[in-house]
Amino acid sequence: MSTVLAVSHLASQRAGRTLFAELTFDLAQGEVLHIEGVNGAGKSTLLRSLVGLVQLQAGHITFFPEQPDLQQNWRAHTLFMGHKAGVKSELTALENVALQAQLCGVDNIDAWQLLETVGLLGLEDLPAGQLSAGQQRRIALTKLWYSNALLWILDEPFTALDTFGIELLQQKFAEHTANGGAIILTSHQQLTWQTERLKRLRIAGGDDAGY
Ligand SMILES: Nc1ncnc2c1ncn2[C@@H]1O[C@H](COP(=O)(O)OP(=O)(O)OP(=O)(O)O)[C@@H](O)[C@H]1O
Questions:
Q1: Closest by alpha carbon to 34, among 185, 142, 191?
Q2: Pairing between strand 78-81 and 209-210?
């Protein structure tokens, strides 16, 4: 399985405080990297840095180093989801699912089927703003059911999900990695999913950082 991401000697500072330095890791197809750390340690900053949303002080990031065709167009093969659900509160659940797919450049989704998959059938016509935090998160997560991206970078994907939602998402992760995908995620909870291909990286907010 080839490497999807190679990261070396990354350093980041926020408001004069070093969040991480000399951070080096890589990730191969089929692997999951769980980024851990206390509130404010720098987990979201790291994920946002990987996709170019936050400027780094130092370091080097290479997507798909062994696959030049993917490397050249790495954004098309990488899905980033931030920690906010990011749904439009005035649009219905169904409209949100359709809009998200459109923004991802996918036009052949079955929005009803996706809503059923994530347990939202019956709520399709409600404005998303009237849905609970967990239900809004489920709308956002429908992307994972049609994404063609090889690498998923997910900031707190389990936030607000109930036990069933967490289990559903972990099943999706297992399917993605079994198909050669890779995942980097942050989460304050331990994954219940048992896999030998789970790596952990602890960000210690500048005190220490490493496997
Ligand atoms: N836009 C910003 N400008 C200045 N400082 C910021 C900014 N965003 C985050 N920070 C600071 O960077 C540090 C790391 O924040 P970050 O969101 O990466 O932490 P985190 O590990 O993801 O935390 P949490 O577990 O609470 O989500 C925090 O001290 C935060 O105050």
A1: 185
A2: unpaired
Burial class (CB in 10 A: 0-12, 13-18, 19+), 143: buried
Query: Does the C-beta of 157 come closer than 6 Å to ligand 1?
Result: no
The whole-angstrom separation of Cα 134 and Cα 136 is: 5
Q: How many domains does the chain have?
A: 1
Q: What's the 145 CA to ligand 1 centre distance in angstroms?
A: 29
Q: What is the CATH number of the domain that holds 129?
A: 3.40.50.300
Q: Which tokens belong to 85? A: 């659900």
Residues 139-185 pLDDT 10s = 999 999 999 999 999 999 999 999 999 999 999 999 999 999 999 99
What residue numbers bound the domain in which 96 lies?
3-189+197-210
SS3 32: strand
Residue to probe by mutation, ligand 1, list 10, 13, 14, most atoms within 8 Å of CB: 14
User: What ipTM was predicted for this assembly?
Assistant: 0.96
**pLDDT tens-digit map of 29-82:** 999 999 999 999 999 999 999 999 999 999 999 999 999 999 999 999 999 999
